[in-house]
Design goal:
It is a single chain. The protein is α/β, with parallel strands linked by helices. Helix content is 40%, strand content 17%. The protein has one domain: Alpha-Beta Barrel (TIM Barrel). It contains eleven helices and 14 strands. The strands form four sheets. The chain has an eight-stranded parallel β-barrel with strand order 1-2-3-4-5-8-11-14. A two-stranded antiparallel sheet has the order 6-7. It is globular and about 55 Å long. The N terminus is likely disordered. It binds 2-acetamido-2-deoxy-beta-D-glucopyranose (NAG) (2 copies).
Length: 346
């Protein structure tokens, strides 16, 4: 008995080690992977075939795309890249009003590609606001979901992308809740996502909170993940960076709205290199590389649970409005395919 007991003791560290290797490789190959948004509001971008080659060369294994662009969908065939496709906001009303139109869209842009493209989610809408689009959102989600299941594609999850502007009282994070005018139209969507075990997609930009903060009450380091001491105490949690505070305020809001079981996917995050306060390649490099490492470990409210995250964006986009120069310079790459700063994805 003693012998085998000793053997157990001797072998268990080995077992733990092997297990931890297994776990590490599991997270490494799935949940820990960070994707990049392929925004296309530029008139000088490389063609989609070159773009997909750039993703592969740089070990970027996930993409979010905002338009049902057939050239890009064809380029993605066989790439192995996992993919989020948006239903653009201007189609929400059309698809809410017509199951036939929703079916056609799913047929043309999902079903026709699903053998060769690894769809993760269809995001019905991006940063949808109260008003006509908000009113149409839930019905559009339902119609796209029905179109997918009728096409035999119920494994592809439907969600929607919201943003920090939909939330209020996000400080301290536990006080976070949806603004009433957003909850009005998002409540049925939250219920739907909870019922399906699907995540909510949320764009989280510490940059904008930092830029818009009054009296400098958000220090740059807190926004860039370089703060070395806890800054916010929200019993029992402490916060050392604004990204965690933001995502946990979203979790707090979901818990108050029947969505406590939902995962949050960070569908956009990044830092611009020019055009505004504290924009630089140096700060962007710091933010993006810290983000990639940070999301492997979850947030205080969901410790140890990797956060699926997409960096905004692949390229600088010169078709964004000139009045808001900061919108144009979020790229990891310039349109001539030159890397603006070093990022390590794997
Ligand atoms: C991509 O991954 C491969 C294999 O792990 C590595 O050799 C290569 O340097 C990586 N490329 C970049 C641009 O990080
Ligand atoms: C996307 O789908 C809509 C609706 O089916 C269609 O009208 C539009 O032309 C498509 N967009 C692109 C870029 O192909």
């Amino acid at each position: 008995m003693k012998m085998s007991g000793d053997k157990m003791l001797a072998s268990s560290p080995m077992l733990m080690f092997l297990l931890s290797l297994l776990m590490a490789s599991f997270f490494h190959t799935t949940a820990g992977q960070v994707g990049v948004c392929f925004g296309q509001k530029g008139n000088n971008l490389p063609n989609p075939r070159e773009v997909v080659a750039m993703y592969k060369l740089n070990n970027i294994t996930r993409m979010r795309m905002y338009e049902n662009n057939t050239e890009a969908l064809n380029a993605l065939r066989g790439s192995g890249i996992e993919f989020i496709l948006d239903v653009p906001n201007h189609f929400l009303k059309l698809f809410a009003d017509s199951q036939t139109e929703a079916n056609a869209w799913v047929q043309n842009y999902v079903k026709n590609y699903h053998n060769d493209i690894r769809f993760r989610y269809i995001s019905v809408g991006n940063e949808v606001k109260p008003g006509d689009q908000g009113t149409a959102l839930f019905q559009a989600m339902q119609n796209i979901d029905k179109a997918l299941s009728d096409a035999g594609l119920s494994n592809i999850k439907v969600s929607t992308t919201t943003y920090m502007g939909a939330f209020t009282e996000t400080f301290p994070p536990s006080h976070g809740r949806f603004k009433d005018e957003f909850l009005n139209f998002l409540q049925p969507a939250i219920h739907f996502l909870a019922g399906k075990g699907s995540p909510l997609l949320v764009n989280i930009y510490t940059y904008f909170s930092y830029k818009d903060s009054k009296n400098d009450d958000i220090p740059l380091a807190y926004a860039l993940f370089t703060e070395t001491n806890p800054r916010v105490l929200d019993n029992p949690h402490t916060y050392q960076n604004l990204f965690d505070a933001n995502i946990d305020s979203v979790y707090a809001a979901l818990e108050k709205s029947g969505g406590g079981s939902l995962d949050v996917v960070v569908s956009e995050s990044g830092w611009p290199t020019q055009g505004g306060k504290e924009t630089s390649k140096e700060n962007a490099k710091t933010y993006v590389n810290n983000l990639i490492q940070h999301v492997k470990n979850g947030s205080p409210r969901r410790p140890g649970k990797p956060i699926e995250t997409y960096i905004f964006a692949m390229f600088d986009e010169n078709d964004k409005p000139e009045e808001t120069p900061v919108e144009r310079y979020w790229g990891l790459f310039s349109p001539d395919k030159v890397r603006k700063y070093d990022v390590t994805f794997n």
